[in-house]
Specification:
21 helices, 504 residues, Rossmann fold, DNAb Helicase, Chain A, alpha/beta
């Protein structure tokens, strides 16, 4: 192209090498120009000016800021605007648009646009030019990110820690890696139907006809169809209802199924435990697996046989892909960063957060008046993680005290704290409810008629837990009854316990 000399003067140096300052002295200082390729930018713009249909091949990949030269950024912006309005973008139509552009005047004015179009032999390489331009943009961004990391590391601030800089860098790197994904777009109904048929076929072949990741609870799998990618599930309940117990059971069951099936079923699970430590959570799982009371384990009140069960269970657990992060007061940004890292390093198919109200938004401190906005940001962030990583995300949530004021203690959607954002963003909302808990705290006078009725109610509610599915975007709502064993904090299928006669 005839403008290479002018372009190199404009850019400051030859783009194909790491140039030095011109000097006859051997000890002259060195400097590097940011990665760029003027010819690729020229070729791309020329191809689109010759045939606007070439824009369809590159419009989903490139943005104006991906070009190195500012004048090329403005030319691409103008081309995009003309084409988006249904007009033809050509050297003739753009000439008047750039009549007063000083940078373009230095390159030859309107003649430069004509040279861009006139030097193109074929528009077939437009996509290749675009890939080159984008590749060099990524390299320039990496240079800038490196400089920002150095500056942040040197800048000591009381309100920020070194890990904040690390999380910032990881987040920007991941965003940079994802920014060039142009695989989206429309899908034909035919292709979508074929995918649906494949999902249905896999469900038919799978035991229990589960299309998503199993919870390990047959009745819940039947109601939900398993846990599906990109879904945000909210598991809520009042204190002592068993939210953490049920979430832990589901996490362990799913990870165990993955290990036993060689990855064909179940999921690799990540568990953010913001309330309990990782060893406390592991003790719960160990108690469930070994069928030994958690209280007995804490007190050391176990027999030699129990200890053998304990050892055997620990060996089984070591093979289960369940990863626990017990860092307190994480921000939603940190959760996203760590989830990405876990998926990259070990694989991640299912994520659990215990619990939502202990997460922070992006702001360092939030007042009570902004708490609703902060929770909205958190729930949107969790839904974004589910879609971005294409995994189900389950977040535990507290309920307001309004439940305690009603005669019927079964929770409703309106009982969710900051319910507007949680209910709106969630695909599935489930409540854990155990009538037995409330009955034991409302014993009437012994010998009265009410006491006899109370005893009958206690017998019916003994070891019974309910999972109330109050919202299901892709399926029916309903209630799943389960057996609850408080000694080992285990939820299990109700009929299995009755069939085997186990009362634990």
């Amino acid at each position: 192209m005839n403008n290479n000399v002018v372009l190199e003067q404009f850019a400051g140096a030859d783009h194909n090498s790491s140039p030095h300052m011109e000097s006859n002295q051997s000890d002259s200082p060195h400097y590097r120009v940011l990665p760029h390729n003027a010819e690729a930018e020229q070729g791309l713009l020329g191809a689109v000016l010759v045939d606007n249909r070439a824009y369809e091949k590159i419009g989903d990949l490139l943005r104006p800021e991906h070009f190195f030269m500012p004048v090329h950024q403005r030319i691409f912006t103008a081309i995009s605007q003309f084409i988006d309005r249904g007009q033809t973008a050509s050297p003739v139509t753009l000439k008047s648009y750039f009549e007063k552009d000083e940078d373009l005047a230095e390159l030859g004015g309107g003649a430069y646009l004509a040279d861009l179009a006139g030097s193109i032999i074929s528009v077939i390489n437009a996509r290749d030019y675009a890939q080159t331009v984008y590749e060099l943009y990524l390299r320039r961004e990496l240079v800038g990110l490196g400089e920002d990391m150095v500056n942040e590391a040197h800048d000591h601030k009381l309100e920020s820690e070194a890990m904040d800089t690390v999380e910032m860098a990881e987040s920007r790197l991941f965003s940079l890696a994802e920014s060039g994904d142009s695989s989206g777009g429309f899908t034909s109904l035919r292709d979508s139907v074929l995918v649906s048929i494949e999902v249905a076929e896999n469900a038919f072949k799978t035991k229990g006809h589960v299309t998503g990741k199993t919870t390990g609870l047959r009745d819940m799998d039947k109601q939900l169809g398993g846990l599906h990618p990109s879904d945000l599930l909210i598991l809520a309940g009042r204190p002592s209802m068993g939210k953490t117990a049920l979430a832990t059971n589901i996490a362990y069951n799913s990870a165990k199924a993955y290990a036993q099936s060689g990855g064909k079923e179940g999921a690799r699970v990540g568990f953010f435990s913001l309330e309990m430590s990782s060893d406390q959570l592991a003790s719960r799982i160990l108690s469930d697996c070994a069928n030994i009371s958690g209280h007995a384990i804490k007190q050391g009140d176990i027999s030699q046989d129990d200890f053998q069960k304990f050892v055997k269970a620990s060996q089984e657990l070591s093979q289960v892909p369940l990863h626990i992060d017990d860092t307190p007061a994480l921000s939603i940004g940190a959760v996203r960063t760590r989830a990405r890292r876990l998926k990259r390093q070990h694989g991640l198919d299912f994520l659990i957060i215990d619990y939502l109200q202990l997460l922070r938004g992006t702001g360092s401190r939030q007042s009570e008046t902004n708490r609703v906005q902060e929770v909205s940001e958190i729930t949107r962030g969790l839904k974004a993680i589910a879609k971005e990583l294409n995994i189900p995300v389950m977040a535990l949530s507290q309920l307001s005290r309004a439940v305690e004021q009603r005669e019927d203690k079964r929770p409703m959607l309106s009982d969710l704290r900051e319910s507007g954002s949680i209910e709106q963003d969630a695909d599935i909302v489930m409540f854990v409810y155990r009538e037995e808990y409330y009955l034991h705290r409302a014993e009437p006078d012994i010998g009265s008629e009410k006491h006899m009725q109370w005893q009958e109610q206690c017998e019916r509610a003994l070891n019974i837990g309910e999972c109330i599915i109050a919202k299901a975007r892709h399926g029916p709502i309903g209630t799943v009854k389960m057996h609850f064993d408080g000694h080992v904090t285990r939820f299990s299928d109700l009929d299995e316990v009755h069939d085997t006669g186990n009362s634990y």
